[in-house]
Every structure is written in C-alpha cells, then in structure tokens.
Amino acid sequence: MSKEKILTVQDISCVGQCSLTVALPVISACGIETCVLPTAVLSTHTAFKPGWTFRDLTCDIQPISEHWSKENITFKAIYTGYLGSREQVDLILGLIDKHLEKGGAAIVDPAMADGGMLYKGFPSDFPKDMARLCAVADVILPNITEACLMTDTEYKSEYGEKYIVALLRKLALLGCKKVVLTGVSFDPKKLGVAVYDCSDDTVEYYFNDKLPRMSHGTGDVYASAFVGAYMNGKSVYDSAALAADFTVRTIEATMDDDSHWYGVKFEKELPYLIKRLSE
Known about the structure:
Order of helices and strands: EHEEHEHEEEHEHHEEEHHH
Radius of gyration: 18 Å
Distance between the termini: 16 Å
CATH superfamily: Ribokinase
Shape: globular
Number of helices: 9
CATH class: Alpha Beta
Number of domains: 1
Strand order of the largest sheet: 3-2-1-4-5-8-9-10-11
Number of strands: 11
C-alpha cells in the first residue's frame, strides 16, 4: 500500500496513553500522514479515579464529513478504535463509504471489551453494532472477548487451537477479509496473535514471552503499530508480528516504574519501530 494519508477515528484522553494520544504519534512515526477525528474528549482515560470529564463529539462527525466532501478529502485507510454508541457506528460506516479511497483499507479495532466482559457504559447489544462495522473491514483486530461477543460464542479463558480456529471462522462470517485475533495463548508462558485469511481459511500464529504486567493502552499501541506497518507495505502477518514485538518492548520499558500505571512508555521505543520498518 502506498504511503498516503490515513484517518483514525476514536476518542482522545488528554492524560493517559491510549486511543488518539497513542495512534497519532505512533502512526506518524511510521512516516504516515495521520489525520484524526475525535469521537469524544476526556480529561483522563477511565482507569483514573472517578471525576474525569467526558464530552461527546458525536454531533460533530457529520458536519466534519460534509466539509471534507466539499474539499474532496479522501484517505488511503480509515482506522477506527473505541466508539461509544450505535449512532457513532452508523456515522463511521458513512465516513468509510464517502471518504475511503477506492482500493483503500478499512481497519477496525472493535475496542469494547476484555476479560470476558463488555466495558461499562455499553448496552448488551452493542457488539451487534460493532459487528456491522467489522463486516465492511479489510482487517479487524479483536481480542478474544470482543470476538466472542460479536459471534455469540461462549468466552473461555482456557482453550485449545480448535476453539480459536472456530472463533476465527465465525468472525469471517461477519464479512471482513482478514482477522488479527489478539491475546491468544496455548502456553501460560506465551502470548500472541492469530492471523486469519478469510478467503482461504489459513491461520498463522505469532507468540512472544508473556510478561508479568498488565498495562493500560497496550491494545491501542498494538493496533497503531499494526496500522503503521501495514501502511508501509508489510503483509498482515508481518505487521501483526512487528506490532507484537513493539508492544512487548513498550511494556518492558515501563516495568520498572510503578508510578507509570496508566499506560506504557511507547515513546522510548519509537526508534525501534522505525528501524524495524526499514528492514
């Protein structure tokens, strides 16, 4: 894929390393012109103590799109992250239809759940709306919880390869072209991804050593690095593997600092990401 400008659509937390505060610097560091459409503005991300502010920007999405149409603005890729409502899903479907260039890529991170549970604030039927967005995607990047919710599959914390393959095949039925399923583990010491080509039913895995730390924002770090690599012409599998390596390094860079609980120090590892892209 050529290095044209892309659009990323998700919320922005003024403090806290997630969503747009990750996507913009990471993808930009990959040499890609990164345009943004914030869906909401928060004072901090929601893992901070209660009291954070939230401003919904849903009403701004359509006017922004109309202005872009007047200016004939289109994008080589549209990458979506956390979306807060069914209305936003509908609006983003319209954005993809109007502003994604022919032959461009729609990349969806259906950020809405983890650990077997939907995030607070989402109605129980929201996964059906996210599935509608995944249906038009070239690549989707769900974790196992999100995949289960979108496919009405029982969530399991312990499983074998048969379970993962069945889950990938169910995701393919949504209509997407390729799947990068994150958080896959067949060994308690390993954690990785399953990359699935919906057209030929092939699965490839990539694993790293599992680190003894859970960190906020790593899903956004991973997805952003994936988009940056993919837009530099790397295959889905190579992009998935590079993003995994980068994410592991960002966690390692943060492990000795307990005060940095709200995210990972991805900035320190951007030189590594840039170097890997040149290989």
